Amino acid sequence: MMDLDPVLMSRLLTTITLVFHIIFATLGVGVPLMISIAEFIGIKKKDPHYTMLARRWARGFVIPVAIGVVTGTAIGLQLSLLWPEFMQVGGNVIALPLFMEVFAFFFEAIFLGIYMYTWDRFKKPMTHWWLSLPIVIGGGMSAFFITTVNAFMNTPEGFEIGGDGFAAINPLEAMFNPATPTKVFHVLASAYLTVAAILAAIAAFGLLRKKTKEYHKKALKLTVTLTFIFAIFTAIAGDVSAKFLAEYQPEKLAAGEWHFETEGNADLILFGWLNEGNEPEGVIRLPGLLSFLAYSDFNAEVTGLEEFPEAERPPLWIHYMFDLMVTIGVFLLGISFLYLLLSKLKRWNENNKFMLWMLVLSGPLAMLAIEFGWIYAEEGRQPWILRGYMTVEEAATTSPYVGWMFVLFLLLYIALGVIGAVVLRKVFKNNPVEDELEKKYPTIEKGDK
Amino acid sequence: MNYEIIGISVLWLFLYGYLIVASVDFGAGFYAYYAKVTKKDHIMNQLISRYLSPVWEVTNVFFVFFFVGIVGFFPDSAYYYGTALLVPGSIAIILLAIRGSFYAFENYGSKQSNLYMFLYGATGLLIPASLSVALTLSEGGFITEENGKVALDYLALFTSPYSWSVVFLAIVSVLFISAAFLTFYAARANDVAALKLVRKYALFWATPTIIAALTTFIALGQHNERHYQNMFNYWWMFGLSVGFFMIAMWLIYEGKRYGLAFISVMLQFFFAFFGYGVSHLPYILDPYITVYENATHESTGIALIIVFIAGLFLLIPSLILLMRLFLFDADYVKGKK
After folding, report:
1. Is residue A28 part of a domain?
2. Could you give the 3-state DSSP secondary structure of residue A279?
3. Alpha-carbon distance A112 to nearest alpha carbon in chain B (angstroms)
4. Which of A164, A183, A449, B278 has the most beta carbons within 10 angstroms of its beta carbon?
5. Which Pfam families does the record associate with it (chain A) (predicted)?
């Protein structure tokens, strides 16, 4: 028992750190792209509304970045502090992408500092815009490298097992393992989608409160368009991810879909619950769709969970995570499509109350989908930390103090979350957009409100 | 030269980089708070926040770089240090988290919160203290391994004169390096009032720094005889260190060439730090980890070095751009931009 306790606490501590960090990491990847797009449109159209949009997003961005940096540092160190035996073995292979991730982060950090403090320092506005690109690229590269590490843990490759651990290591092969392409695609697309949805939610909320209509309308149009585009990419990414799972991690797909027996023409199961005999009840069955999702063929055979030893099966509750993620994804695609459709039809007002509230809702939902998706992906490879090689239990620290550290970090994250939100609110409340527009661009007509 | 030695040298260089940039940052935080308490904040704060705002995130990366690098090059260090450092390491992370985020809260959010300033200042001294534990542990004698279980001997750690002298040295060095940098920065900004103040700090903290260095040296002699003897083989490095210290002090005392003075301070710590490091070899953690026996596989090691060189081509121009825009742009420093 004394040995098991640190394992559970290590898992919980890693979970809270990641669940908290992912919120800010997602913002860190997505927001720079949105800022860059808005600034570019502002310069090209000579429209100060877009420039102001970029400026205000950038200003608000600093607080989440700060929290993202410090929680990222935390998870970086916790990898070694909580999973020393995993890092001792796996460190040989994943050191390369981890190291490269730090470089990408370094690059991003340098240019973020420059970008934030040079808004009015250059004669040509485009010079400043160019500085946003390294931030976008750095953020994307960070996501890419760190995702290859996670992909490696799901499908370890690029080494042989020797006498004492790994031998014949090929770091590049480990980085570009089978899980890498689909994971990176899904992570990037969904991060951009989520950030677009969150910024759309902010604009929609501004419109609902009848503030600076012109500004918020433009913001909404831009962000919902981006939401729609990235929702399509995310849907494609989800589809190729399912096909990847069917081939390389069938137990994760099977547990997520409550697919117990190997069979052809397998049904896709939506929602529902499990009764005491582990039978799905109250479900919506879509005949043959799981086979289609997995192999693009309604009659293909999909491996069931029964093929795996009981000790190597992921928990069955990840089905709910899968459902929630997919449902929200479909909702985001639908709602952004509806908005764009209405805006094309002259007879309808796309900025009606119902639409706006739905868009306000879509922001937080998108972030929740990110969390559900990661929980599905991570719980879906239990009990492994390195699938097929090392279980989570073998990798955890033996230190008896993990419980205390869990409490400390929990308090820290609560404090950072609450104070961060309060400060962020203050930043915008004390400096409303109408005042700022008027101060910066006195030429904008007063009737613009 | 083999890849293990290149690896540890690169890592040591980054730790040195962190030592300098973080000291400036940590010390500045403390001085900013101290200025507020002593009602001198109108003199100091403009200067400090203009320098710190664009660079605080970069500082953090030096640190991440080091610990990711050491685990990469020497995976066994994750096993020993990871287990032993759980508590001090977690505390350091929490302090860093408080410091980093509260800096952003203070500067971009609500104006002038005393609590944020206090946390920012206090963590500036506590972080070097908690991080220096890792260096103390590397001398051996504090980590035990029984039946495959690694544990940290807290009693030995808290009762060791060596560990306390390291903590003391870390804190006073931070204050000294930071004051020397701020003296240079204030001189560049032609900020006479701030210059007078920070120059006084630099002169004041010089003495405890040199005393702490000496006591640490003596305490190390009692704790790790091998390392102590080894240091005499590199006596010239410590000699150079003292020499540069004297040049720096003379320049600051005379009140001229503050830029050169700060470079001398950097060289002073460079030689002391590398003298300490090279005499520590071949051990990374005495007696469990050595550079040769516990290095990563050659293919990974070489890949890391290649990436490192490629990364430098990206980083150095960016860092130069950052410094030209904020550090050496006279108008910016003076607050005109």
Report:
1. yes
2. coil
3. 8
4. A183
5. Cyt_bd_oxida_I
